[in-house]
Amino acid sequence: MSTDFKSIPLIDIGPLLAKCDDPDMGEDPGVAEVVRQLDRACREAGFFYVKGHGIPESLIKKVRTSTREFFKLPYEEKSKIKMTPVAGYRGYQRVGENITKGVPDMHEAIDCYREVRQGMYGDLGKVMEGCNQWPVNPPDLKPIMEEYVSLCTALGGSPNEFEGQRAGDPFWVLRIIGYPGASKANGLGTPENDIGCGAHTDYGLLTLVNQDDDITALQVKNLSGEWISAVPIPGTFVCNIGDMLKVWSNGLYDSTLHRVINSCPRYRVCVAYFYEPNFDVPVEPLDVCVRRTGGTRKFGRACYGEHLVSKVQTNFVE
Q1: Which domain holds residue 26?
Q2: Residue 9 contacts by C-beta under 8 Å, 6 or more apart in sequence?
Q3: Which CATH number belongs to the domain containing residue 209 in this structure?
Q4: Where do the H-state alpha helices sit in the chain?
Q5: How far apart are the first and last CA of the chain?
Q6: Which GO terms describe its molecular function (predicted)?
Q7: Residue 219 within any structural domain of the chain
Q8: What would the pLDDT profile of 118-159 be if each residue is shown by its tens digit?
Q9: What are the beta bridge partners of residue 273?
Q10: Structure pTM?
């Protein structure tokens, strides 16, 4: 239910996190106000900034610093952890190896997923079986990213509506991304290929974007087709909802199209954390959301793992 939003709302989730262990949190007026703001943002834009999230700013900056150090390495060094299907689609991709709707994206990345043991999800998870590939250099990249993933996952919590079969064993994805600066080599003052990442929606529940503080590149599409810039706000995450929440909410919350265009001459880094449902959970509209959207189910049953595997197998050049 995206609208003609012109800006992306900023929400302080501190009051919500402060009461997350309180069984009566739903009665707290501060929590109720945060929930109201989140509901409105998800209905109107599908994107919002959050502050008051509790993840140390020092760690957020370390994540970007280590990312930048890795991408400065020669290709020969980076390719030692090259992503392959055999590795469960984990590891490094060079610029142009990620594909969005058939078009190469102008970014490089390390892709990480929650590690999947052999047979963990039967045939459904076979494609994703494997351990994450971490580089030797910089040596602190692995511990920094693992701490970061742990803290981001803890933010997901376990709201009552998603307990039981729907949550409790969440999958997660981490994309460590580098966008080369815009090329002026054609002499026209415009990039030769400026699509850092083509227009797409995310696959799962909720995305937390940790982006450089001083380069605006992320753009979000409103209902009229305008691209609204997600201008960096230091100390915040840019958050957006994904395809599985669109299904669960019966379209009440839409997974909004977004893209990345780095028109700045400087290299940009971004680390996107994706909080997902259980890998093998059946996803279908919740009754409460069906009632809120007119009483008709707009989506059939889906499975997050199937959705992820179908995307993974078509998004990369082998």
Answers
A1: 10-312
A2: 37, 40, 41, 45, 48, 49
A3: 2.60.120.330
A4: 14-18, 29-44, 57-71, 75-78, 141-155, 243-248, 287-292, 304-312
A5: 36
A6: 2-oxoglutarate-dependent dioxygenase activity; metal ion binding
A7: yes
A8: 999 999 999 999 999 999 999 999 999 999 999 999 886 554
A9: 174, 208
A10: 0.93
